[in-house]
């Protein structure tokens, strides 16, 4: 008997989807600035990229506040249990129709692999992109701020971070289709309620 | 090619009132021509071959052009500040004709519209040359040669009065300011460019926008005649592509500049300096500067290519005598490069082996005039583009959109592609299994 759980609150869903849109937009404009794409033209791509980046920083600030005040940050705390089982599930079990070894509950929404991926995102990738972005925007002031870096190196790290985001986006988007039925996770993230 | 040994022809502009030989005294006040700058009547014109003197009776130049006698007292009673026209009498015609040498100034600047020159716009700001080329006791600010324009502090404050020749003098070091909004990130970013990119680079998108300018001058073919008569073959731009006196010429209009690091000074080949002739053109005048030079910025130039006489034994560029009477060795009278070289080098006091070959040469002319209105300035994509951008040859800066580290891009793209393949295979397998059931 399917049970419906309210897993994602209204703010969480708003945060998730606006963040997703911003990151996709930042990837498009960013890779245009990098010279890999041609969509908006360089000037517009640059301006949109900066605006979207600022929007993402503001959104992230709210999200951090939300995570801290609601205690939702605990969902990302890494745990060791069941990691091999989950790996086995995605490699073999999923094709045999076996159930997911991890049981979603309102007090543990994320499986141990998700926890690892998201905490890496939040503690490494986001700070990397924000810090390098800040540096790239303010390179004229480096000498006053006592920062010793080269524009080229900072740009390289920012690009590397962008590839990491793209990599995450591909895997993440695919994994959202692994629910049963396939759109179950996606529906959950839209409506808040997910069948388990 | 130099003034030396060709004085009476060249000194109709190369300043010196009566500069007819090497004994001319530049310190004598009476050797300065006041009227050439301060005439307001437009009637003071120097005769092209009279050593910087104006005609005092009606004279015909080259059998064609009549130079009327100058009424000196009339001109003297109508002196005034210099105008675009009075400066332009020489500067617009440098190189021997309208727009020939410079590419960024020519006679269209006498009454330009805004499109051609946003500052000199006759119906707008209507600047004269001296608005920017400020003077202190007749010392005129210039940008190049041995005195680069005053440094970064030369803003247009009263205490710096007299030095206003740089764009920054009036526009400041962060020149783009929002008109209506308090803050405009686009302008902030444009201002960030001023540390490494000169204003001219974006705001002079093309040169030779007025008249055609000479871009190639091959002296080695000069001196050919047809049935004993000089040849003048006109090209599509209304300028000669061959001239018996001058050789083979190429012209251009609306040209894209070349860009170099430039700190405001040039390096010159000096008369008598030894230079090796190789496959690359000899750089007679080249801008100094490099990406590691904090004073250097990226600057637009008109490159001028040519072929000119060279002494292969002494390894020096030759100063030939071009102008003079028959029998003097002057090339334009005797049509013999060896005789012209011997006469010219003797006048310059330099050794000459008797051998003449021709070498490829190039010089760079910094572009600072004919500043286009802002809507015509270069857009970001002119330089921030992977291939074929304006700054494709500029090294020493990381230029987003142009530069990348191919290895990083390869690793990143490969990893993302592997991820994409994996999830596709995984997904297809799931779909196939689902259908089997």
TrEMBL record, chain A:
Residue stretches in coiled coil: none
GO biological process: respiratory electron transport chain
Family annotation (SUPFAM superfamilies): Transmembrane di-heme cytochromes
Topology relative to the membrane: Multi-pass membrane protein
Chain ranges of the Cytochrome b561 bacterial/Ni-hydrogenase domain: 8-191
PANTHER family: CYTOCHROME YDHU-RELATED, NI/FE-HYDROGENASE 1 B-TYPE CYTOCHROME SUBUNIT
Record's protein name: Cytochrome B
Organismal lineage: Bacteria, Pseudomonadati, Thermodesulfobacteriota, Thermodesulfobacteria, Thermodesulfobacteriales
UniProtKB/TrEMBL annotation, chain B:
Name listed for the protein in its UniProt record: Tetrathionate reductase family octaheme c-type cytochrome
Alphabetic keyword roster: Membrane, Signal, Transmembrane, Transmembrane helix
Transmembrane recorded as keyword: yes
Annotated GO MF terms: oxidoreductase activity
InterPro entries from the UniProt entry: Multihaem_cyt_sf, Multiheme_Cytochr_ET, Octahem_Cyt_c
Superkingdom in the source lineage: Bacteria
TM helices/strands, residue ranges: 411-433
Record flagged with keyword Membrane: yes
